[in-house]
């Protein structure tokens, strides 16, 4: 097992220059501003709850998916018998490409920690007895040492398995064999950990359990604590099937608890009834404060609120869409609707970075990557607020350090990196400076 504590980190890596203009002015200090935090001050952390599982990746054809009742592009639970049959089939065909820690929230935390070089905390279960080479062992081996696993709940039995099937078009479909992944007890949701976080990340998958599973109740405890403490709750929708089972329940849940909603256009369509990702993001603003809607080869959209008093007009070309010139105020920074005296809805969009990688082998985790970038920017804002509280950046309670437009750029860049590394978990962060960026892309 790992050492109980992590290396002390008193700094946090900031999102960095994603454009030549200062994305974060790390080397330009305003002499009038005194940083107040002591050098020992701890940077913020992000906490998340996930179903602990390992992705077992295999490349198969559509007929294979049909044979085992899987749904293309989605995540379905499979019975123990089906899991065993699948496992034998992929072993016999020597189809296993990799076995790697997965889980949509855990991927997001891992990537957050890689990008920020900073701490995140994962809540979930972990097998009490771990043999070398077991799934639990692989899980621990492929999680960043910046992800704090000290609060995991020990359980009897295996963690979950996520058969990750990549088809020829690069799309991914999941079959989940849950093991003990849904047994998280509310006693392993520490109030102090939730209350001190820059954000709490959960996924819609957490409610998908069987009779007797405790995960949903534990997640509900966490969101209630976060709400009471004013900690932003970040919900990622995970897969269409979970939402379409009861969209009205999700709408009410989001309205009650969620600050930041992340979804792809399919999930957005079942939640809101709007096929168009921009329209879906706009509709979701009825319930959430900030929305990230990824749309595969179309890039991604963000929607949110800013106060009329702080709106900033873009210098980019105005874009057409179901909301004409929707990006007009994309240089504004997001705020909670209730923090705005006169809330103004703001939208932004970006096309895939460099048009997307030359060849995409696997799109698994591209959306999780985008969300980890948004979390990094939100946590950087918390860090800056405690370090330089009298900065003009904090005249209002903004949710992120950067504007909608910059958030889109950063999220999109991280998705591209996930696609290039062909893995939902980044093994390295982004370059400090993107020398090629200006000429190659932003200045185009
Ligand atoms: N085919 C593609 N070409 C170019 N860029 C892509 C492509 N697919 C995905 N991307 C990039 O990745 C981002 C996220 O993709 P996508 O909408 O597929 O995420 P997702 O379905 O939520 O993924 P996951 O659930 O596996 O994390 C997009 O906004 C885009 O920047
Ligand atoms: O039921 C689930 N719970 C948690 N994570 C899941 C589930 N199904 C799939 N993924 C995870 O989603 C990631 C890509 O977004 C994959 O890495 C996979 O592990």
TrEMBL record:
Residues 100-303 form the Carbohydrate kinase PfkB domain. It is an enzyme of class 2 (transferase). Its EC number is 2.7.1.73. SUPFAM superfamilies: Ribokinase-like. Keywords: ATP-binding, Kinase, Magnesium, Nucleotide-binding, Purine salvage, Transferase. One of its GO terms (molecular function) is kinase activity. GMP binds at residues 50-55, 103-107, 208. The keyword Kinase applies. Catalyzes the phosphorylation of guanosine and inosine to GMP and IMP, respectively. InterPro entries: Carb_kinase_PfkB-like, IngK, PfkB_dom, Ribokinase-like. Pfam families: PfkB (PF00294). It catalyses: guanosine + ATP = GMP + ADP + H(+); inosine + ATP = IMP + ADP + H(+). This is Guanosine-inosine kinase. Transmembrane segments: none annotated. It comes from Pseudaeromonas paramecii. Its cofactor is Mg(2+). Pathway: Purine metabolism; IMP biosynthesis via salvage pathway; IMP from inosine: step 1/1; Purine metabolism; GMP biosynthesis via salvage pathway. Belongs to the carbohydrate kinase PfkB family. ATP binds at residues 294-299, 367, 412. It comes from the Bacteria.
